[in-house]
Amino acid sequence: MALFEADSFTRPAAGSPRGSDESQGGGWLHKFTVAAYKPYFDVDTSDVLDRLKESLYPFKGTFTEKTATNPDLYGPFWICTTLIFVAASIGTFVTYIAHKLRDKEWNYDINLITWSAGVFYGYVTMVPLVLFVILKYFSAPSGLVQLFCLYGYSLFIFIPAMCLSVVPLEIFRWVIAGVAGFMSATFVAPNLKAHITSAGESWFLIVAGVFLLQLAIAVVLKLYLFTVSV
What we know:
This protein has helices spanning 6-10, 17-23, 34-37, 45-55, 63-66, 74-101, 111-137, 144-154, 158-164, 170-196, 202-224. With 230 residues, the chain is mainly alpha-helical.
């Protein structure tokens, strides 16, 4: 049985500050105002730190339970933004050193920023959207903001992984990418499973697909960000 009903998984619980904020203004036009999304950025440092720590303990599967009444978009936004910065800076530093050691001319690649921005912002936006539609089709409890929150924090592990990619050993980089991908996948899958068992036998296929997709993003990051060619 799902831990939360669809409404509590979709938006803050009634009576909470966020719930009262969302009720103001009413109507579908309210969704296109800043006030509609302001409650999801109303978190303090301790909230974000607790959720970051939770993402580093993937097997617990209690993240969605703890954030059911107050999912945030603040953490996911800054995690993705930090990933873009780290990817650009680490990638630039590593390629610069590699070129200098081989006495080859080095030129800054601006595409590294645009590519990483497209990957991280695109992934944390499009995957939850598609998953939300799939879960709605199977009448499983699902909340779009909750999915954005879950997927955003699932990418946090890739920040230290990218920092460790400066080590000039290809096998080490593969290990780091693999560990990060596995931790990210085992963070998303159990947290999602706890809420979609009402989808019947299809829940296993959904969770398996989510798990494999998280591993796939790790492989993509390894091939395009953790790999240095001179």
